[in-house]
Design brief:
With 325 residues, the chain is α/β, with parallel strands linked by helices. It has 8 helices and 12 strands. Helices cover 26% and strands 18% of the residues. The strands form 2 sheets. Strands 3, 4, 5, 6, 7, 8, 9, 10, 11 and 12 form a 10-stranded mixed β-sheet that branches. Helix 5 (144-158) links the parallel strand 5 (136-140) and strand 6. Helix 7 crosses helix 8 (253-270).
Length: 325
Amino acid sequence: DAAKRYIDPEERIIGETSNAMYDYVPTTDLKGMEDFVEEKDYYNNFGAFDPIKVENYPRLNFPKHLRVFMHPRSVHDNFPKVRQCMSGNLDYYTLDGGSLLPVVALDLKPGDGVLDMCAAPGGKTIIAIQSMLPSRIVCNDVSIGRLRRLTSIIEQYFGSGSGIGNVKDNITFLRREAEEIHDYGVYDKIICDVPCFSDRHSVTSVEANVFASKMTRNRLILPQQQSQILKAGLLYLKVGGALVYSTCTLSPVQNHGVVNMALKDIAQETGQEYAVCDLTEALKPLNFMGTIYGKKQGVTYGNLVVPNICSNFGPTYFCRIIRKS
């Protein structure tokens, strides 16, 4: 009992020192462990795959107005410095080559209503605008700082006011949690580029390293947060619409693991029908860009751009999902 476990320091004084600190007091409970979960056990929840409908999607139409430039393979030179055009706008936008593919995978059509759920810093939004296909683009981000940066970038590239060709009249900015947009059944196409491990930043920046011990809790809850964002996005789709879920990590848990979890949950909760698109054939014309993994390489759903020395793009995971009913 407690009385037997109590040690009186006065009884443990030897000479001018006390030995009390060396006595062992057995513990009955560890405080702070109530929410503790082994990382491997937590991730196991995302590793059991359920049957999900997969449909072949043999062709993607590359937007004819979109111009993309890249160095030849194995050339690692920098691009020239971005400059102002005669119109006062910046002449081109640089981004990781892998970031192009999620927008291409949307297969945008003329008149599409598009939602970018986590839009900042804005690369994928700019690609969608430059395609000249959407009739409306809604750019959402929860961070006021990131949203300000996004609006600034849009102005630098498309001008102030209504912008070049009044393109900005069709752009709306929102600052909400992705799960709180509540535009159910509204959009033809959705970009769902979620917060993730950001592998490239983690290996080049101490501050952005999600694998630091102090980030363990955030790292553990991230797949659940990603799944909630994806589920919300699927509900915002029109029947027949398409969403592309994407990350910039190699993590199978955050990639096809989250797709599996979100689709399983939404089927149980709503009864709505969705299908994953198999883009194996559709991506063949883009294989020159770099290494794109699919089901043959162990990516259960979707595709993964894997960095290599010759084409140092990515990592970028993307998965096209369509709403069937």
